[in-house]
Fold these 4 entries.
Entry 1:
Amino acid sequence: MNRMLLSIEEINESHSNVAGGKGLSLARLYLAGFNVPEMICVTTRCYDKFLDLSGLRERILLELNRKDFSDMRWEEIWDASLRIRNMFNHAHFPPELHLKLGPVLDERFSGLPVAVRSSAPGEDSLRTSFAGLHDSFVNISGTDAILDHIKRVWASLWSDSALLYRQELGLTIDKSAMAVVVQKIVVGESSGVVFSKSPTDSASGVVEAVYGLNQGLVDGAVPPDRWILDRNTRKIRSHHHAKRQFYMVPGNSGVYEDELPDSLKNEAPLSDEAAQAIFDLALKSELFFGTPQDMEWTRKAGLFYVLQSRPVSTLKSPEQQDERQWYLSLHRSFENLKGLRNKIENTLIPEMIQTAAQLSSVDLSLLSDQDLIDEIEKRAALNQKWVDVYWAEFIPYAHGIRLFGQVYNDTVKPQNPYEFVDLLAQTGMASTERNERMENLASMARNNPVLFEKLENLDPLSANTEDEKKFISAMDRFVASYGDLSCPVTGSRECAQGGDALIRLIVEMASHPPVITGHKNIRDLEKQFLASFDEQNKNRAGELLELARSSYKLRDDDNIYLGRIEAQLMMAVNEAKRRLEWSDKHPGNKKGVRRLKDAVDMHGQTQAPVSSAKGPLPVKNVQARQLLGQPASNGVSRGYARVIVEHSQLSEFRYGEILVCDAVDPNMTFVVPLAAGIVERRGGMLIHGAIIAREYGLACVTGVPDATKLIRTGDFLTVDGFLGIVTIGQE
């Protein structure tokens, strides 16, 4: 063909760096007589030429060098990947490349649906599997659509998981390249995967099968039937029958989930004889390649087609750890996320609320010392349980936002890669509801000069005055729900700042006009998004939008719920501390005192997110002028910096200042209505500071290295949320 394309007949061992692992593997199987669907390979030469002609190479390197990659957090890597993907979405195929690829694609695949699959050098090798890290697309028709999806596969070279995996393996990120396999689709009656050697049992092989296309099995949306076979005798040891309800079928474009016909629900997608036949094919592939194989297949009219075959790279000793598995666990399919949403909204959140309420109903002062110790242990165990739930359930659920963002950007192709976030805001987050209740308290003070003066002077209020009585009642309800805001944990009271922290914040709010959340007209954006889909996929797109809104809301709410449970642990520990203080003045039962002290020492440490910025003081002899971070909320804000290192400093925050901190936690977002903008060291479009900034329409820049050291309280800042730049000086 040409340097940009290779047919399956042309690919040989010398092409490993230009055809990639998948392309070379399929070509070798084809030449060895395996039944492989027709395919061509778009080589890495084409990818490199595309980057050079489009100018993307420099832009990608600039994006990845905003910050030392090893210092980038998960959220920052997700964001960088999103921006790079959007670059590919907007880059047009240069005429030179279109002339080389277009005619060949027309000739080979005109009117035929194809799969567009990744084939990076090193992919599907024994040392570097990359399985599941790069994108593949099924049922793509037409030259323009194929070229568009080739770009999407190229973009997946820069997915967050792929970037992290390359770092883990020590691969050079800036020299990575991607080939693409364009393969004719065989729509089989059943599809699946087969392991010639089980990843968990070296004496067995595994066959998994579903009806329809393989996409449902790969994405985890459709559970497979599973056969375990003996590697020596080929006999079937067991057959796990899945609950067969759905299968993936081709749509007008792409694939969609449909209900399985009743006639197939009670019948396995393969007979035992067919399962043995595909296992034999995998053993033959193992013999050919010299290593156990993980093979993807489909079956049509009794004939098996090999779609890809790669080494079983997960054969490792139990003591070996694969951190990539946790990376991949964060990326969930749409169907998986729907199930997770149901579990979180209908089971986990109500249980958290009930747990906090039950704990708060206990009068700790009435407990004996031993009962108090037992209560502390109980609360510590419950707190740890919910921390574990947070990491296992809530963090992966955040992928609903990213999945929606990817779908939105791929279909709508907005110039602003973060436009989709506007569709997710104003979802009634717990932190904004808390701030609205604070504003209600501030409004009472703003409209009553006598009440305002008393609050400003910290004078006692009278329950005999109607307005003051209403204020006291509203304050009591607020504190019962959120604490007095003096602690780093929602729901706790009277920490470092004392019980007057809330009063001081209300007085500051009441001294200025009310602040409302930034309202945007999202109706047009929603219509634009849904109009990008045909009728077959529009409902699914609407479901994805609602799931993303739920995920976005929980991204901020989860810490509020967690904080209320941790607050109950803190309150029990504080009760123990009070008893220890009393015992110092009234010596008595030394054994009981020792047990109380042990409980306090073990469980007295509480989370204080803002304190993570502790360390060297700001550099005295160096004054930064312009700091580069990541754009997280559009807008340009100007004001004097207020650097927050300790939670106790939040009560010093004043109206119109720029909040500068290590990381904004949901338990400290009550000062945001006073802020003119936000700057954080921790990066990411979906961290709490960025989320709350967008709710209030504030400019926000995240991921600024050493922000709390290079910026000093009182510095005049210009925060550019469009470009991700913070300028210091020149009021």
Entry 2:
Amino acid sequence: MKTNKNSYVWIGMWITLLAVNVRGAEPTEYRRLSVNEYREKMKAGWIGQLAGVSWGAPTEFKYRSQIMPDGIMPKWLPCMINDAFVQDDLYVEMTFLRSMEQYGLDVSIRQAGIDFANSGYGLWCANAAGRNNLRKGIAPPDSSHPKFNKCPNDIDYQIEADYSGLIAPGLPNVAIAMGEKFGRLMNYGDGMYAGQLMGAMYAEAFFEKGIIKVIEAGLKAIPAESQHAEMVRDVLKWSKECPTWEECWKRCEEKYRKNPEYQKASNGDIDCKINGAYVLLGLLYGKGDLDLTIQIACRGGQDSDCNPSSAGGVLFTTLGFSKLPERFTKELNEKTVFSHTAYNVPGLLDVCEKLVRQAIVKEGGRIEKNAKGEEIFVIPVKPAKPSKLELSWAPGPIAESKFTEAEMAQIIVPGSAKALKIALDKVAPGWSIANCGAEMEPGLRDEELGRKNILITHPLDKDTPCVLSRMADIPAGKKTTIKLTVGHHAGGDWDLVVRGDAQELLRKTVGETTTTNGWLNVSVDLSAYRGKRIFLELCNQPSGDWCWEGGYWARISIETE
């Protein structure tokens, strides 16, 4: 066959390119995890959090810069596991899961900020500062910037980042990305890295039981030059030098609690580095013992319910639910809904599986079936790519990020006049609300005392009732009544006062002795106002003892016979 010179040149170029590609290509490595095993370990991770926070809750912040004395740690009782359903470090992270469930894994940081701004639970520290900024229109990432947030290195995202690893088995970059999205709502620099470290440890715990390797995998996920990474390296090193966790604790105290260089932009008791160190102490000195791990993380002090929750979550993940002792599982009420969320335990597991499927495919993995027909996650092994280095005490420029008018219209602060009016319109259209106090989280509840769509109100103060009001035209020649179904909190009571044109028509206590199953039906005759237009008022009046004075409104209707 005859060929010309140019043909040889082209053949040579293709051979060279092929050789370069072969030499430059890195072999793709995969890890495999059955869906059943994933759910086993993911569920165990949640149980570890529940156990740790419940066990440590009675001790929270009672021991500051001191080790909790031996013997003070509460005794674990299996029923305590259910105390976790009202804990903030669990329901806050479920807000993030809910955003992704509704909008997908790639939900925007701005939508995540809107959802967080709309949360109705109480918050503190960096969480509170970040949410307040969002509600004022300061959009992420600026909501956590030290210019607007004075506690960027607080523990907040560290205690809320567990979800990010539980939906990212073997995928540290997914946990890192979650930090850049949800951690940025309230934390900056070390405060965000603390959560990314935690998420990456969980991600590795699906495949690795050795705690040092789990911690080292987390360390690779945060900037090596950060103080938080320095803390992790120190604790790993000191744990090899110190025979007891108490001795290692003292070294952590001297450097990361007392040295001003490591308290810059920090809020003392809840600084992420010192509390993060206690999580690591529990994991390293607990040596795989579930009880001891939680106890050490708790006895370190400071945020002594959140720290054992994190340590317990990581360690429990390495084992899987079926391998957990019954004392942590036998009395778990899986039907209980976590406070301020849409999830009970089965619902939580399902949403995590839904999201992990998206994460694996997005990262270049796939879902296969084995010979038995079981689904298998095929997960690519990729090196962690940490976020860029930021210093909370010397921050970079702000992003000048503001919510638009349309975005601000989506933010309905629970308890605000806007939110209360929307809630009232769903129960009693045409009525107005005034002087509603913030206690007992007023607004619309999906269910209370066995009834659906309940409006909760609360007096403004001990002397000022919350008032629902409207103008009403009373037909002539017909009997008209206002019919109410009202209830009360199990721990309190209140006085229902009905007024027409400022005249008191009814006053009745709504409490344990006047209700059936917490509810009271009331009918007030308005026949005296036939043919008139009157001003009606329904008052949630304090009863006098100022204890759980919230008014529950299931029915408000004006009916003519």
Entry 3:
Amino acid sequence: MSDKPAYLDETLSFEERARDLVSRMTLEEKASQLVYNAPAIPRLGVPSYNWWNEALHGIARAGTATMFPQAIAMAATFDEKLIHDVADIISTEARAKYHESQRKGDHGIYKGLTFWSPNINIFRDPRWGRGHETYGEDPYLTGRLGVAFVKGLQGDDPKYLKAAACAKHYAVHSGPESERHSFNAVVSKKDLYETYLPAFKECVKEGKVESVMGAYNRTNGEPCCGSKTLLKDILRGEWGFNGHVVSDCWAIKDFHEHHHVTSTAPESAALAISNGCDLNCGVTYLNLLIALKEGLITEDLIDTAAVRLMTTRMKLGMFDNPQHVPYASISFEVNDCDEHRAFALEVSKRSLVLLKNENNILPLNKDKIKSIAVIGPNADSRTALIGNYYGTASRYTTVLEGIQQAVGDKVRVYYAEGCHLYRDRASSLGEHKDQFAEAVSVAERADVVILCLGLDSTIEGEEGDASNEYASGDKNHLNLPGLQQELMETVYKTGKPIILVLLSGSALAVTWADQNIPAIIQGWYPGAEGGKAIASLIFGEFSPSGKLPVTFYRSTEELPDFRDYSMYNRTYRYMQQEALYPFGYGLSYTTFEYSDLTSDKTEIPAGESINFRIKVKNTGTWESWETVQLYLKDVEASVEVPRWQLRGIRPVFLKPGEEAEVEFSLTGRDMALIDNDGKCILEPGKFRVFIGGSQPDSRSEKLNGSKVLSAVFTVTGEPIELPY
């Protein structure tokens, strides 16, 4: 008979082993494991472990790794497989770095296998500074890409996790950043279940995400990291989540310091653990033993949390023979390898969105150009490549460098910074508009100007991370900051053709540019070698195919109050005015023709599925990706519903003259609405389906020069309530 303890018996289930391990710990040892920097328990062979790690668009804050475009940029690909493959590479590099760190005895922060990614909050307001961490404003797109990222990160082994993903920030969280530690997000049941929860539900139920992180704010009065409604009733009750919950960092101390729902640290710790928050990113759980002594909690709650956390570590193979864990043999050499960097460049190309291309000024023919002026605060900025939560790339290519590399010695490339990103002078000792004259001088000498404006993560990001002089990471308005608009208008007066490249993680109200500048590219934060991707697009090495995952508005004034979490007049689903550039929009160098939209039925009983087919043909001269989008409109709903909403995405790659038939299937759940009580109801009546390369709104039709095809079908029978 073996003396080996049960927790080391690899034939038992991970939960059985975790229970056995926790049963051998003292009370103090169990409690010590519930903070993010869990100490070692040498007598049980438990090494120290730091749970805090980030992988938003590559391994972050842990040295060199492949750096992909920021999450919002990847969302513009509308491609689930691409996002899955990105996350698979991230977790491959995670394993490579983790095992090397272990061999070197480095158990520090950002060195583990538990990643607090993806961020699947809904980007409901373009002023929110952290919106570029998300997959945009649409619940369906966010859910599909979130599930793809989770599955790619966690791997497909039937027994072990490759890495542990974490869906954050649960829930109803999207600013304001400056008030996040005290803010109460008030939301209706309809908006909660229709907009703010679907992506989390998908990541839990379909993605099997291992972890969920609570948000800083309160939702309807309850602090999210201690919310009975969110954590007990919905997450574990309705959705059956059995992974672990982690607090946002130092969020639990906000309970008593800022939300004032408790009075002391032990009370805050008790509220969080009682409602199912297992792991504290912070130190408030150091008060758990006091809470126990004061009778605020039972030891069972500590046991439950410890078992959940040890189960995750077991799933990652941390207590098993490395030879039995398939991912433990990944070599350090695969980190930042040529293949991974090449793929990151491909993702950068797929993420770029062509917003305007008057008279087909793009692509530029470099054989017919003698000089180019590259101007703007983001032209030679590495910061504008990387977004936030970034790692260290081994190579960077700014837009200026990308242009220089693309044209070689044949074309003279002039460069001028033009202005600071948001201040009124580029040099601290300079005078107002100190770089304008140089910008005009280089523009005058050039055949064409590439103007690089926008934002970067120093002013658009997380409270405490981004510049406090610029709204704690949020945007006060949607205009270009500082002198950028004036710089653009000044360069425009030279009469030279301008290609505007916007590097930003969110929508900007570039109405003047839309009226006056012939070509506009939304480049996002395109990753370490994003400048190479942008130059490739400009000079026609590929056709752009990105689509906007957010709405570009015409002005700040048309936005609802930032603190209002109602979806009324927000995002493409409920907005009442015409967009500048709509969600789902993006131009190509080629043209696509849609035809033969058919369905297998025109009438179905409630609860049945219906299938649609459509043909899409590349009628232009460039090979290109195209994102076929399906939107559904409930024509006869009994409550207010979105005017239409995304319900299907299919990226297809077509050569000139090539045609493909694309299929979609709509389920009863796809057709169901969320009523005012938060119930999921499938109502009989008429529905309209729209399928094409964009939304069916008039602005998209005008910009694309074509209408989206549509079909009507009817659902018969009585209303039925479906599981959410």
Entry 4:
Amino acid sequence: MKMEKHHKFSIWYVLIAIWVVLIVHDVMVNMFSIEHIPYSDFIKALEQGKVLEVAITADRIQGKLKTTQDGKEVEKMFTTVRVDQNLSQLLEKYNVTFKGIMEDNFLKNLASWIIPIFIFVGIWYFMMRRLTTQQGSFLSLGKKAKVYMEDEVKVTFNDVAGVDEAKEELAEVIEFLKFPGKFTKLGGKLPKGVLLVGPPGSGKTLLARAVAGESKVPFFSMSGSEFVELFVGMGAARVRDLFSQAKTKAPCIIFIDELDALGKARGLGFTGGHDEREQTLNQLLVEMDGFDPTVGVILMAATNRPEILDPALLRAGRFDRHILVDRPDKKGREDILTVHLRNITVDFDVDIASIAAMTPGFVGADLANLINEAALLAVRHNKEKVGMIEFQEAVERIMAGLEKKNRLINPKEREIVAYHEIGHALVALSLPETDPVKKISIVPRGVAALGYTLQVPTEDRFLMTKTELLNKVAVLLGGRAAEEIHFEDISTGAHNDLAKATDIARSMVKEYGMSNELGQIYFEREHQPKYLDAGLPTGKDYSEQTAKTIDEEVKKIIDAQFYVAKDILTKHKKIMEQGATLLLKEENIEGTRLKEMLLADQK
């Protein structure tokens, strides 16, 4: 990305400008210069008939005379000190026009000073324009909201998929903007503020633009961070300016993206006081209270951190309608993929349902990136159409990271990685209610992954049983168990698995009430935003004896599931060794091949 170069104002600019003005002044003086000649030369020129006209005072003579310059006869101005008292007789003798009043060259004096001043002002204006463009001006409101008129917003609900519930909620807003009379006739009022809440990339901004596109009204868009400036009062002025603009274009939509940058709860920081951000938020609250909801100005905002917003923003009469734009389910992902595949040339083997099944938890932005990655891979493979192979590879690139085929791993480490990954896969294939194993690989990916086992769920899940959680822990510990069985030693490669397994076990004990020793008690303190405690240490809501029991229960779960994994791999040691050998040879194997080997061994 090209970085913009910012120039700082310097006193050298002023010195250079003054130097230029002095030079221009000297040039202008020289252009209108008058040559001073001796009186004797004047008499000679007079006798030769070269004097054209003169102006005479008591002690000076000024006028025009003819002279030769570069072979051409030209006229020039001259001045001399008057000596001869009988000059009038000489002038009459040689038929020269003369007068007794000296002409002051007003234009010469004006040009020699006014023109340099204009040049100086021009240089100053040009420099200030550049500084204003690059650094912003403290004399103006600076950035304005981006305004899209009704014929400029091309996005409609046909371009938004996977958020059907949110679209239904917003249909009422569209109806109000199109036919406000239907609501005002019954005395109904639409909510002043609509807050779109959802994870990053879920389509909140796109949905807001689609509302404007469906309603055919102007769309004012501004980010929350653009309101807050260094200079006190600037943000509040921008809020006033935004609402005043919107009222002139009503009916219209005001959209504030990343509202949390502007609407963070007040009075919780150590800086205290009445800072610029708080002034801006106060002005926004005042404007929301002040405008009439019947004029047709709808305020929409988006955030992925609603828990840190100021309560005054969320009360009735302000942002009182909250619309969740959640991660899409499998059907929603299919619809999103269909929208993004409109401009992609795909092969006949592409199955949208299969791609949607491989991407649980993906939001709209992730799916758009997935399709783009697949298209780039097809170009790299010199294909004219994007096939299913490219989509599968794109999923692996996004979930596991970029392949590092040039990363050199010594044979010993490579063997450890192979047994580690086969251990994960075998435990997952042996236990019930686990996600199917899609692929096992020992090709390094991402920053630190030396291999991976890709498990793809068959459906979206929102609840998990105790058995499923225990099996997840066992699968995570399968890699460490395989190392211990085959090498009778363990490596550092399981650190990430141990962290995930411990988190699951601790959540089972402290949050889900799945400990026989402690029972159905919730021990985890509610997760609060970081800004609330500002890093201060907080005490536990339970005794040290209870904390000790929690640690013991977590250890029991980890130990029990490690022995479960170890028992499975000991039982299928032959398959583990065959699978590791195959993986060392081919680097990548499908989960179905390992499953077939396991089923054949069980017969």
